[in-house]
Structure formats: structure tokens, C-alpha cells
């Protein structure tokens, strides 16, 4: 090869090249090597490598004949990565050693900067994760790019549920403020929204993010006010039994797509558009109240009152006065100024009577007259009041048997049973468990302040092989106990987190037989006993885990003789 051409090729390489002969004399060096080493070619050619090139190891490779690849070497203020390769003759003797190296000083500085940036990012992440308020960051298109741990606790939605999606994904009631700020480039303060599947109420502040005068997105801070409002509401003695609330759920909140459940949902949707009285039937824990909320919200009464009453939670005298109201002085202990009844509170709206099968026969008679005449007379009054109230009733009892036993008025039964909707037990739509489970996990994330994201297939298989005598309510209880068994950093429910399920499907030898109401009562008693034992007899904590009021727990303790 032409010597001039060879020199041109070597000097055109982006890597530095330096070669010594068998005596350790430099015989070749290209322009890039001269630049990195800050040497002139004529000053090094023919000179010994040792003493000419700082920190060299070429003489060592010449002696050992062993190559050295991708070694980091410091040269004054520069850092290089070098490979030292011995060139051998046919008999194996080393006749030259070649070094190929590259200046990585700039790359190393960039790597250090990236490391510093990662440390800063980790610090900022730790800071925002330590805050009690939910923080969400969106880009300039209104898509969520980052959320903190408190966000999952408050909304019930994990990062994988929301990151990369439009900031409408977590809004249960209201409009996306991230998108509004992306449009207007102006901050929004003290807006009230409801977020997540449990529709938790929050106050939100959203501020645009400007970088060098350009809007890059927005940051939102959500402050949970539901706890404050809950404590305020508990000043009412009957808050958990008698709820003057706006119905929280709609048909989209009913998880499941099995044929039996779809039939119930379609029936409920059709009747929602009418003013007919509805009777929701099904075992305890199947979601009858959820259906009642959905029917109200799908009706033309959605903007009016939704009043819920548990007929089993109040004794006869109190239930009568709560339903129909009373005038001042109507009886000993009557409140000064009297009391508006719940039927009056529900005027132009909906009254939901849960566990109506346990309503006392005397009150049934008076309530039947209201259904017939659409008017009531408060206790101690002689003046009837005309009302427009849509009634939704629910029961897990066999009303037909109660009618036969003279424990339920036949006329009231026929008035209520205009549109019966049968809500199937969970054992009849097991295929819905995966969908229901994921919805319940999001709900429990909010209640327990956890960040559970999913359930593993093996654990899900166990749930689907269980008979669920307590239905969806029992499933919620099992998942809640599973979360308690998890470590704080764990994100997926595993089979070892599940409590023992004692009645798996397919083991008929272990399944008791008898009246369904008695079996459910026995199971409910067992659950209450276990929960009380778990909380060392603390009834407040037990009621909280069971998802019932402290008054309802006392009622059940007395009922079951616990």
C-alpha cells in the first residue's frame, strides 16, 4: 500500500492510534492521538514509549503478550478509554503493540451530570411523596405525567391507572382543571371536585408551569376535605342510619358484565325512567343500595333529595317519628319546634327503605296509607301533607313467607312488589369477580390510604373458587383484610395475603343446608365475632372495618347475643 495513502487512512480515524515495535519504540502515531496527548508527531516517533507517553502500559503488554480491552486511563485533565492489542507473528512472538483510545472526558462529565440529575429527581420525588396532599403533574396537552403516593391514597387510583392519560381520568364529578389551565395558562384556586371511584371530595389548586416563558404543563394539589366533613356530619346522632345525601353512584359504578347481572341492570335502567315503586331483592351484601343510588341518579329526580333509611336499625317508636315527623309536644321528649319527617325531606325525590322486611307491622300500616294516598300526617298533627316521593325498597327476606306468617301486610307487599328486581348473589356471577375486585381495590386504597395496584392470578383463582355466602360485601371484607396483611411497600395482593376462606365451591360436604336467612345470619355473627376479637373488643374499630355504623354494630351484637 502507498505509504502516503496509509498515513491518510490512519489520520482519518476518529480513534487515536499509537504503535510501538518489539523494542518499545514508538513507530506510529496518528493526528487524533497527538491531539489527545498534546504531543507533536516529530517529537515522539522513534522515542521509547516509556517516558514519552504518561501512564502507559504498552511496555507491559509487550512483555506479557496479553491484550487489555476498554481500560480507563487518566491523562492530566483528560480521561481516555483505551485498548492495548499485541501484534504477534506466526510463531507467537510479539513484534508490536497497538493502542487504540478515545477521549471520553466530555462523556464522563455528561454521565456525572445525569447522575446528579437523577439524584435531584430522587430527592424531589421523595419530597412530593412525603406530602399529605395529592399532587399531580400534567403536560401542556393535559395528560398526566406524574403523581405522588398521597394521590393514590386520596383518589384510589395508582400511577399506572392515570399516567399518560388525559387528566379527566380521575374526575368523578366536575371538569378537569389541568386541561382548563393548559387552555388558559392561568391558575385556578380552591375549586371543589369529587375524585376517584369513591367520589372523594377535594379542594384543588392548579398552577401552570412556565419554563423560559413557555408553558410546559401544570401542577395540581388536591386537599382531602372528606374527613373534615365526615367528622362534622357525625354530630348528627343518626348520621350513619338516616342519610340525607345526594346519591353517590350510577350504573357505571356497578362492576360486572355477566348475563344475570346485566338482566338486573337493564331492568333497573328501564324502571329508572318511570315513577314506579321498586323492590330490590337479593341476599345481604349483593349491592342493593348501589342499585338504589343508580336508579335515583338515572331518574328525573336526580337533582332532588335521596334519603336512605335502614328499617332494621331503629326501634318502632323512633322509626315512626323519623319517617313521618312530629309536631312540638307530640310526645314526651319531642324536640322543640317539632321535626320534619324523612318523607317530607324526600319530597320530589327518592326514599330508599333498606331491610323493609324488618319494618314493624304497625308502621307498615301507616306507610301503606302513604303509598295509597300520597300524603302523611305528622305525629301530633291533624293536618295532612301532600307529598311526591318515589319509593325504592330493598330486602333480603322471603316476603311471601312473612305475608303467610302475618308478619308483613299483604297489601303493602303488592304495593311494593310492582317492579321487583332480583340482584343475583355473587356465587351466581363468579365470572365478574376480576372486574369487581379491581374496583374494590381502588375504593379500599382511598379508605385505607394504601397504593395497591393489582391482584396476582393465583390469588384471583382462589377468590373465584370460593362460594361467597356474604356476597360482594364479604369480598370487600376479604380484600380489606388482605391489604392489612400486606407490607406498606407491596403493591400486588398475593395468595399468602388472603385470609382463610372456609367454604370453597365444590366441597359440598362442608356446606351447611337450611334456610338462607338463618345461614347468612350465622355467617354474619361469625364475621362480627372474628372482627371484634381482632380489634380486642374495640367496637368503633370493628364497625369501621365492617363498613357499618357503631349503632348498627350494637344492634347486631344484641340481635345475635354476642
| Domain module count | 4
Oligomer: single chain
Structural class by helix and strand composition: alpha+beta
Main sheet characteristics? 6 strands, antiparallel
Distance, first to last CA:
102 Å
Computed over alpha carbons, the radius of gyration is 37 Å
User: In DSSP terms, counting alpha (H) and pi (I) runs of 4 or more, how many helices?
Assistant: 22
Count of beta strands: 21
Fraction of residues in H or I helices: 25-40%
How would you describe this protein?
With about 550 residues, the chain is an alpha+beta fold. It has 4 domains: about 5-105, Beta-Lactamase (2-Layer Sandwich), CATH 3.30.450; about 130-230, PAS domain (Beta-Lactamase); about 235-420, P-loop containing nucleotide triphosphate hydrolases (Rossmann fold); about 510-560, Arc Repressor Mutant, subunit A, CATH 1.10.10. The chain contains 22 helices and 21 strands. A hairpin with a 2-residue loop joins strand 3 (about 70-75) and strand 4 (about 80-90). Helix 21 packs across helix 22. Mean pLDDT is about 85; it is low at about 235-245 and about 505-510.
List its salient traits.
562 residues, alpha+beta, Beta-Lactamase, Rossmann fold, 4 domains, 21 strands, 21% strand, elongated
Summarize the structure.
Helix content is 39%, strand content 21%.
Amino acid at each position: 500500500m502507498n505509504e502516503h495513502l496509509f498515513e491518510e487512512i490512519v489520520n482519518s480515524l476518529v480513534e487515536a492510534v499509537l504503535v510501538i515495535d518489539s523494542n518499545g519504540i514508538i513507530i506510529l502515531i496518528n493526528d487524533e492521538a497527538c491531539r489527545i496527548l498534546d504531543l507533536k508527531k516529530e517529537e515522539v516517533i522513534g522515542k521509547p514509549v516509556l517516558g514519552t507517553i504518561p501512564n502507559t502500559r504498552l511496555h507491559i503488554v509487550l512483555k506479557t503478550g496479553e491484550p487489555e480491552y476498554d481500560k480507563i486511563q487518566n491523562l492530566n485533565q483528560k480521561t481516555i478509554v483505551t485498548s492495548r492489542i499485541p501484534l504477534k507473528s506466526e510463531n507467537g512472538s510479539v513484534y508490536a503493540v497497538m493502542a487504540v483510545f478515545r477521549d471520553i472526558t466530555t462523556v464522563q462529565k455528561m454521565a456525572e451530570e445525569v447522575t446528579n440529575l437523577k439524584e435531584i429527581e430522587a430527592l424531589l420525588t421523595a419530597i412530593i411523596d412525603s406530602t399529605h396532599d395529592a399532587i399531580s403533574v400534567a403536560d401542556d396537552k393535559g395528560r398526566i405525567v406524574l403523581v405522588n403516593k398521597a394521590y393514590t391514597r386520596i383518589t384510589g387510583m395508582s400511577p399506572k391507572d392515570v399516567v399518560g392519560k388525559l387528566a379527566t381520568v380521575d374526575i368523578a364529578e366536575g371538569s378537569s382543571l389541568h386541561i382548563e389551565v393548559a387552555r388558559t395558562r392561568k391558575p385556578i384556586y380552591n375549586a371543589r371536585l369529587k375524585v376517584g371511584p369513591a367520589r372523594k371530595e377535594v379542594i384543588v389548586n392548579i398552577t401552570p408551569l412556565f419554563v423560559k416563558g413557555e408553558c410546559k404543563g401544570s401542577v395540581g394539589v388536591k386537599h382531602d376535605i372528606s374527613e373534615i366533613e365526615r367528622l362534622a356530619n357525625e354530630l348528627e346522632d343518626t348520621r350513619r342510619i338516616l342519610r340525607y345525601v345526594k346519591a353517590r353512584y350510577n350504573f357505571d359504578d356497578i362492576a360486572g358484565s355477566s348475563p344475570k347481572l346485566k338482566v338486573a341492570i337493564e331492568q333497573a335502567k328501564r324502571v329508572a325512567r318511570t315513577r314506579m315503586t321498586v323492590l330490590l331483592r337479593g341476599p345481604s351484601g349483593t349491592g342493593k343500595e348501589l342499585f338504589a343510588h343508580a336508579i335515583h341518579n338515572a331518574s328525573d329526580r336526580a337533582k332532588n333529595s335521596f334519603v336512605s333509611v335502614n328499617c332494621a336499625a331503629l326501634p318502632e317508636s323512633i322509626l315512626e317519628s323519623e319517617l313521618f315527623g312530629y309536631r312540638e309536644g307530640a310526645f314526651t321528649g319531642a324536640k322543640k319546634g317539632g321535626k320534619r319527617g324523612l318523607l317530607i325531606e324526600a319530597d320530589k325525590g327518592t326514599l330508599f327503605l333498606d331491610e323493609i322486611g324488618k319494618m314493624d307491622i304497625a308502621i307498615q300500616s301507616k306507610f301503606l296509607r302513604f303509598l295509597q294516598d300520597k300524603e302523611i300526617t305528622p305525629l301530633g298533627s291533624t293536618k295532612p301533607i301532600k307529598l311526591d316521593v318515589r319509593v325504592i325498597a330493598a330486602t333480603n327476606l322471603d316476603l311471601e313467607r312473612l305475608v303467610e306468617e302475618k308478619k308483613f301486610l299483604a297489601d303493602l307487599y303488592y304495593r311494593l312488589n310492582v317492579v321487583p328486581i332480583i340482584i343475583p348473589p355473587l356465587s351466581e356471577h363468579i365470572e365478574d369477580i376480576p372486574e369487581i375486585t379491581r374496583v374494590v381495590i381502588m375504593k379500599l386504597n382511598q379508605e385505607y390510604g394504601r397504593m395497591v395496584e393489582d391482584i396476582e392470578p393465583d390469588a384471583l383463582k382462589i377468590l373465584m373458587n370460593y362460594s361467597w355466602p356474604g356476597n360482594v360485601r364479604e369480598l370487600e371484607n376479604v380484600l380489606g383484610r388482605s391489604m392489612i396483611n400486606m407490607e406498606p411497600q407491596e403493591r400486588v395482593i398475593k395468595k399468602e395475603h388472603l385470609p382463610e376462606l372456609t367454604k370453597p365451591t365444590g366441597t359440598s360436604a362442608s356446606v351447611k343446608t337450611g334456610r338462607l336467612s338463618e345461614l347468612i345470619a350465622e355467617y354474619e355473627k361469625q364475621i362480627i365475632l372474628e372482627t371484634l376479637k381482632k380489634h380486642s373488643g374495640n367496637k368503633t374499630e370493628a364497625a369501621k372495618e365492617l363498613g357499618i355504623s357503631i349503632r348498627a354494630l350494637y344492634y347486631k351484637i344484641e340481635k345475635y347475643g354476642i
